[in-house]
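Predict the 3D structure for this chain.
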Amino acid sequence: MLQSIFRNMPPVVKNLLIIILTVMMEYQGIRLSRILGIFYPGSQFFEPYQFVTHMFMHGGFPHLFFNMFGLLMFGAVLEKVWGPKKFLMFFLITGLGAALVHTGVQAYQFHSLTGGFTIPLEVQNLRLTETGATWDWKGSYEAYVQFKQMAQSDQDTITSLLLSPAVGASGALFGILIAFAMLFPNTELMLIFLPIPIKAKYFIPVYIIIELYLGVNNFAWDNVAHYAHLGGALFGFILVKIWQKDRNNFY
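Done. Predicted structure below.
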């Protein structure tokens, strides 16, 4: 049965699954998220390539499972409708869009706390350890004093912004969910936690509203990048609208 599913899987979805699963299996137990995950651009650990590579790294089995399940269930349908090239472009653009929105929100948070968009790298000099992160201040003593005078919650927020990479294809997946709801609005979905059929045009918008609520409230127990999800959904919505207006000329 699994062989049949894999054999009938469209090529882009199949190869995305292979790449993501290979990364997780090959580097299990290694903190690869520090290399492939996307850091805030003001962090000393940021690299431009992370805007792409973060999509192929996940933060554990549940995160991996739900993203791959969504990619298989909804992405495969879209690839069969659009074709491989168009679907791959959609996946990458929505993933990049998610990262851009996530980064923009981080920049707003950082600026609201510090009055700028970063701490100078020669002052920042953060060190990652197996148990977390430590500050090793060098350079401007005034910047150190300014940081230490902040409330502890603000210090924690700044440290998290500079040291916490975002990983996963969730942004692209939310773009896929939006596209599926727009193209197949009356398709009934059966949810694991709610075993009653719900049409896609009702379920997906409610899901987006929940994401917005969680993102705005920024609960202490919640470490999910909700604005990345919303960014992927936004870029997915815009792309589908553009393509619906020009069905005969995609490129």
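The chain is about 65% helix and 5% strand.
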